[in-house]
Design a protein that fits this description.
17% strand, homodimer, alpha/beta, globular, Transcription Regulator spoIIAA, five-stranded mixed sheet
Chain lengths: 133, 133
Amino acid sequence: MERIPILKLGQFLLVSIQVDMHDRLALSLQDDLTDRIVQTGAHGVLIDISALDMVDSFIGRTLGNIAAMARILDADTVVVGMQPSVAITLVELGLSLPGIRTALNIEKGMDLLHASRDDQEVKEILSASGEAG
Amino acid sequence: MERIPILKLGQFLLVSIQVDMHDRLALSLQDDLTDRIVQTGAHGVLIDISALDMVDSFIGRTLGNIAAMARILDADTVVVGMQPSVAITLVELGLSLPGIRTALNIEKGMDLLHASRDDQEVKEILSASGEAG
């Protein structure tokens, strides 16, 4: 069965979507990704869509679902590499990808994940010290 | 036209091959990759083949060509994520992927690239100091 590989990069997981997503493939990606987040304790998921010439409402919803599932498992999701034409089409179709954060490329996406992680840790430390004090 | 995306990760480039490689796709990958090596000055190329259930002689030759081209452009190539069944089939077919270095996963591949880079730098420094002395 066709599967989208999930690559581990340090504390992040990287998924590069290159093929047309159909229902079954999207479901197996959701299953595999949530499994890998739990297995690896990953704190972030990067989804590269630079190979996609088109993002329709199905893919948009799938990306949203993945981001929501990852969030519950304590991992942030960033979609990277969107082509300009894809952004234009998405807005023209009225799809604004709610709940999905984006970055221009993998490196900027990693920076974003690192930054939001640091933020969260600072908040946790502050709230812990607040409780202690 | 279908293209395999090339992702930049620090000083390395990452290519995740997920689709069947035909002649034209292999050629466009070679073109794109050599362009990106020159553009970015990347010192290493990681080729992930974890999605491939089969590697035939054409793909083997393509990987070898890419590694040879990258080497001339001062970049090392490591093929990562090979499935056990692929390794078995390759050897049974008499294909030993000459000139191609492999690693189990992206992280080990990066370590290998870093290590060979450090080695090379040490040698360059030693030869330079030898010349100076």
